[in-house]
Amino acid sequence: MKPSFKPKISLQIQALAYDRALRNRRPVFVMHQVVNADDKSWHTERVWTAVGSETVALERAQKYAGSVHVSTELPTLNEYALADCDDSSYTSGVQVMTRLSSTRTNGEVRTRDLDIAHPLVTLATLPLFVAENWQRLLSGQAIPASYLVLKVQRAATVDLRWVPNHTQGAHVAVTPRNWLLRAIFGSTRLYTQGNQPVFLRQEGLLDPRDLRPNGRWKEYLGTLEFETPWDLRSLCAKESGNELA
Question: With CB atoms counted within 10 Å of each terminal CB, which end of the chain scores lower, N or C?
Fold first, then answer.
């Protein structure tokens, strides 16, 4: 999947991921992400590796002419999924078509349509969504979004809020509305360079996932430290009334 537009910015992001469950500081994953974006469109690919060069998780996403396409792969879990949303500029509901093939579907492709009420986001596209809504966040508005969970072909409503004064630094907090998801995963936090949309690190849920012997997923909560910050200042809406997502 290649960008269908002339990008305004092109970024190469490298990051190390640390598991919150470990007391010792040792990277457990390496993340590399390519981003091409302009004011209303973007294309991104995010690849996770561990030991060696084998891909642990892969996500591709593109927004163009209002539509959004997302695909994910977790090769060691034999899991492949995608989602298509024809219009991401809505203010009311819209339908998202998802497809999933995994060991839990016995390798068959399962199709499910989702009705969501807010713009679609993933962990890979979160910084882009934040940049598009930067002025609204700075003004104190809570921005709702539908966080895509392709492993179960669902979407969870989350709220994004700007937290300027925090002991660990200014950040955007992404918090699930569902109490159980809040209890399990807490908030994902995207730390910034002051009040600028320059993103330094991300804390919370990470993309990779493993399967325990009992058949349950092992999720990773931790810190993703960007070796190269995401500088998305050129993509920010110039006026607080703009809504590009």
Answer: N
